[in-house]
């Protein structure tokens, strides 16, 4: 992974955001931004479309992760979007495919799983 690898983490739960920051820090990913809503995710990508990966919580108030991901793709975002969820989710799920997401991280997240999803997919 390069030094300029960047990750945007979107989750409405502050504890989940802190956990992701800690895990990404252990992975020595230094360019990490955390935000707490799908609306903010869309605004952030409009302003800075250069994130390598967006880790997107699915269940958020206002704009959920599916809707936010669709909007990111319509804005032209070409990086990876990884769904973050505590619920069972399959890549075959129509909502997942319609949102044009690339992979899935199931909560609770562990270091080995996130390494596989961010680095090797």
From TrEMBL:
UniProt domain Response regulatory: residue ranges: 6-121
Q: Which domain of life is it from?
A: Bacteria
The record's InterPro entries line, in alphabetical order, gives: CheY-like_superfamily (IPR011006), Sig_transdc_resp-reg_receiver (IPR001789)
Q: Which residues carry this modification: 4-aspartylphosphate?
A: 57
Protein name listed in UniProt: Response regulator
Which Pfam families does this chain map to?
Answer: Response_reg (PF00072)
> SUPFAM superfamilies this protein is in?
CheY-like
Answer whether the UniProt record assigns the keyword tRNA processing to this protein.
no
């Amino acid at each position: 992974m390069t030094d300029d690898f960047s990750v945007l983490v979107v989750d409405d739960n502050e504890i989940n955001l802190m956990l992701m920051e800690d895990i990404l820090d252990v992975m020595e990913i230094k360019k990490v931004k955390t935000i707490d809503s799908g609306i903010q995710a869309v605004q952030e990508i409009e302003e800075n479309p250069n994130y390598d990966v967006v880790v997107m919580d699915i269940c958020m108030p206002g704009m959920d992760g599916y809707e936010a991901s669709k909007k990111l793709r319509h804005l032209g975002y070409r990086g990876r979007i990884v769904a973050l969820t505590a619920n069972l989710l399959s890549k075959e799920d129509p909502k997942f495919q319609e949102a044009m997401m690339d992979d899935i991280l199931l909560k609770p997240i562990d270091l080995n799983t996130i390494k596989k999803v961010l680095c090797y997919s």
